[in-house]
Amino acid sequence: MKELVYKIADAVSGGEVVPIETAHISGVSYITIGEYGTQFLEHLASLGARVSVFTTSNPSAVDIGGALSVDEKIARGQERINKALRTMGVSTFYSCVPYEFVLTRQRTFHAWAESSAAAYINTFRDAWSDKNPGPLALLGAIAGFVPRTPLYTLEGRRPTALVEVKVGPLGSLEAGVVGALIGEKVGTGVPYVRGAVFKDEESRREFVAALSTYSAIVFAVVEGVTPNWREYREMWDPTDKVVISEEDVNAYIKEAGDVDAVYIGCPFADVDTVLWVLGEVSKRGAAKRPIYISTSPSTLKQLGKLVEKAAELNVKIFAGSCLVVSPHTRRFSSIATDSFKAAYYIPRLHGVKVVPCRRERCIDLAYG
Ligand SMILES: C[C@@](O)(CCOP(=O)(O)O)CC(=O)O
C-alpha cells in the first residue's frame, strides 16, 4: 500500500508525504458505497492490509441499537463492511464526530476523510488534516502517511479571504447557513472569519459541516477562536472582504411547511443538545411526529435510561448511523432539520424533501 500512496503523492504533492497520527475513514455505509465499495474493502482485508495508526470510521447504514429499520440485503452488506474493517484493525465505532474522543493536539498530522470532522479539528484545534477521500484515508492509515498537500504545511494554511460575519450569536441553523455562505462566496482557500460567535458546541459542529459541504474548504481561521489565529493573521494582508449579513442568513431560512419527522444531529448531537431537546419536549408532552437524534455510541451510553424515557416522548435517540447514510430515511416524504449538511445530502441520497429550520422551530413542527 505504501507504493500506492507514494504514487498518489507523485500526482498531487510532488512525491512528498507526511506521517500521520490518526486516520478517520468515510464511505463505510452500504448505502453510499454499495456492492463494489464493499468488495474493495473485502479485497484489501483479504490481501492482509492492516492499519498502522489508530483509525476510526464514519457512521454506517445500521445503527447500533436497531432503532432504524433496514432491509436484509443492506444489513448483510453492512455486516460484510464491518467485518472487513475490523479485520483491517479499524475501530468500528461509527461516528462522524471522532474528535469527541480523539483529542488531536495542535499541529499534529491526521488523515481524516469526513469533511466536517477534518474541518472541525483544523478550525477549532489547529490540528492538521486535509479532507482525504475515503479510500485515500484508508490507504494512508495502512501506510502510516499521506501526500503532503498544502493543508499539511504552514504556508498552505495562510488565509486567503477576509470574511466579516455581521450576524449572531449563531445558533445551530444560523451557524450552518453562515458556513454554507462562506463556502459559496469564498469557494476555495482559507477564509479568515471575523465576528463569528457560536452559541454552543452544536453550532460549531454545524458551522464546519456546512462550510465543508458547500465548498472544498476544510479549514477556516476564526478570529479569537482558532488556536494560533494571531500567527495566521500576521501571515497575510487582506485585500478583498466578504460580508455576511443578517439579511443574507435570513434569505436562506424558509418558513417551514408540513413534515413527517424532525431530525437533529448531523454532525452527531452532543449530550447538551439532546438534553435541550428533551427539556423542550418534556414541557409539551409526547411529540406528534417523531424527533430523530443521532449521536455517537458513547453519547448514547452516557445518556443511559434517558434514551428510553425519550422514546416514550416520541424522541428516537440512536447512534452509529444517521439519516444521511441510513435507508430508513426513505420512509419519510419531508423532514425538518437544523442541519445544513443534512439538508444538502438527504434530498440527493434519498429523494426526500428537507425543510431547514431553527432548532426551536423544528421542535414546533413536531407538534404542528
Ligand atoms: C454520505 C457521506 O459521504 C457524507 C459526506 O461526507 P463528506 O462531507 O463528503 O466528507 C459520508 C459517508 O459516506 O461516510
Automatic annotation (TrEMBL):
It catalyses: (R)-5-phosphomevalonate = (2E)-3-methyl-5-phosphooxypent-2-enoate + H2O. Keywords: Iron, Lyase. The keyword tRNA processing does not apply. One of its GO terms (molecular function) is lyase activity. Its EC number is 4.2.1.182. Residues 3-364 form the Phosphomevalonate dehydratase large subunit-like domain. It holds the Pfam family AcnX. Heterodimer composed of a large subunit (PMDh-L) and a small subunit (PMDh-S). Component of a hydro-lyase that catalyzes the dehydration of mevalonate 5-phosphate (MVA5P) to form trans-anhydromevalonate 5-phosphate (tAHMP). Involved in the archaeal mevalonate (MVA) pathway, which provides fundamental precursors for isoprenoid biosynthesis, such as isopentenyl diphosphate (IPP) and dimethylallyl diphosphate (DMAPP). Belongs to the AcnX type II large subunit family. This is Phosphomevalonate dehydratase large subunit.
